[in-house]
Amino acid sequence: MGVSFYVPGFTILSVLVITIWWFLPIYQRKRLARGHPPIDRKDIATMEDEYRKTVTQALGGIFVVATLIIAYRQLSDARYATEAQLSSAQRNTDIQISASQFAKGFDLLGAATTAQRIGGIRILDDWINHSISGDGETIETKYNIVAPALLALIRNETAFTPDHTLCENFSRPSSVRIPDDVRAAFEVIRPWTRLIRSKLIHLEYLNLSEADLSGFDLDKVELSYSDLSGADLSNSSFKGSRLYCTNLYSANLRGSIFSSTSEKETVLAGALMINSDLSATSFIRANLRSANLSGANIDRANFSGADLFNTNFFRSSLISPIFNQETNISDACFVETNLQDAEVQKLKGASSALVIAPYYKGDYPKSHCFSQQKNGILVPDDN
User: Fold this and answer.
1) How many whole angstroms separate alpha carbon 253 and alpha carbon 240?
2) Residue from 237, 231, 275, 235 nearest 255 by CA
């Protein structure tokens, strides 16, 4: 409320005060004089004067109160205006700082050293999670800007060129622990994969050994031929993803989901999952043809409707798995496999599968399950 409101109001109040101050004593004197003997002029003047003193004191008190109210309102208006200006200035400052932070983060992503790139990743992570009122950006739009850049960094740092694109001829590169900047990039995009991501992610032909991808949503992701040996993939989702010939040696896959969807099959054909933890993992209707699960812990895994043609379970633990009539184990290898509570003899293709109890001392046709050593790892027979 501005000064323009108070000026006419004060004028009206002043006229009203003067009118009351002058005419109220006269009215009171006339009212008291009714029915009384006439009063001389001196007494009339004295009476009016006393009334005016009383009225003046009363009006003075009212005036003081009104002045305080007006002053308080003026101070409140000034304070609100100042706060609005400060808030606007602070918001503009925050937006400028955010824009500078964004530019600095992206600039550091292309830096020469790992430490600088990690610094850029941390800056962008802070930019994503710091909300500014009025900047027009949501956390979803921020993630959709930053995540593709981080995925490009991951590919740039870990990509390798395959010598063959057929799994049986593919020579796996030596496993290399992922660099720290790639690890930091994965930490930032984890929430994005679970809450926001809507596009296909291409992570094929990457060396991601010992990566922490636990709790990721990697549905419909391309991971073929990549090296995820020793990686933590526990409690992650890979529904409809393609992991053809992927190296999952000694990886932690506990509780993860590799089930096919109604729209897309999950492919693990030719994947190496030797010595991996696959307990309580779901492979419903998944394609594991010629996958190698030797020495793996596969207890309580769900293989309902899975295609296990020529899959190698050599010396793995397969206690209390879930199968159904659609599970195909044709030519599968269960040599020295712990099949406690696993009635594989009733499954589709059981007649061609090789089942040899643990600690069996006799001879059996090893070529049925594996015919060669490849990079020190037993692989399924290609025939």
Assistant:
1) 16
2) 235
